[in-house]
Design goal:
Number of helices: 11
Structural class: alpha+beta
Number of strands: 6
Distance between the termini: 137 Å
Helix content: 40-55%
Mean pLDDT: 77
Length: about 325
Amino acid sequence: MDAIGKKLLDIAKKELGYTEKGDGYTKFGDWYAKNVDGDHDAYFKTAPWCDMFLAWAADKADVTEQAGQFASTVEHAKWFKKHDAWGHDPEPGAIVFYDWNGSGDIDQVDHVGIVEKVDGHTLHTIEGNAEGYKLMRKTRDMDTVVGFGYPSKIKVAAKYTPKHAAPAPTVDKIGDPATTTHAQEQEHSAPPEHHLPTQEVVIGGILAFVLCGTVALAAGRAAAAKAPTTPPIRVRKRGKHHRPSTPVALPADVTPADLDAADAGTTLMPALSLAAAHEAEDREFWGRIAHLEEDKELDFWNSLHAELTDSPPARYATTPGFR
């Protein structure tokens, strides 16, 4: 007997005699619409339910990965074939698929049930929607059988759970002495290389977070302290292109030797420089207005200037620094 199919049979036997309602409603179709169909289509509540009964039974037996969950008998049969769990040998616990026309074509499957017993070429089955309305035992021959699906041949990936890892307690179990004792037993029974107290892991993580935050904050403050508060000033060094193209001309009565001699003293050079500047200024001024001496108005001012120069008023003579 197929081991997975036996679990389905145990569930099916408890439901023998179930009859659909007058409008075709079944609890199996209702369950399928709510739990399997992604759109929760109400159609399934009153749809043909032979295969939805097997989906419901597989859920109750916790074997959905091996038995499948389908409402379409054709798709269910193809699913077994795709997973190399399809054949033509009758076996108790196998899922049997029928075509009432006897074509043997998997695309023409009309009905499905589960084999309870094999007697030669006669099958004893339990079928939902048998006679179109009831969950009951049936006796069938092999003439209408398209093939069989074998749930035990479906390969399911094993779920690995490390032996040293205990499941996390639920909220209502936290602090429960029994839970605490079990966790301690799991911890002490773990190999040394896997021994790492949860409390130390949590505290270590918190300390690492605080340390990283402190370092980041200190680095940020140091960077802020180094940042200039005012825009940086770019200082350009003076180069040859800043020098005047021609040297400054010296006054006529000043020679380079005079400048060299003045450079040796501390007070002579400023005096010579000032006198030379005054003389150069006067020469430039009178040179620019020399061509205007014929002007009568200018001649008047010249004569006035000469008189004032020869006999300056007392107020000018007492004015310090006037020249």
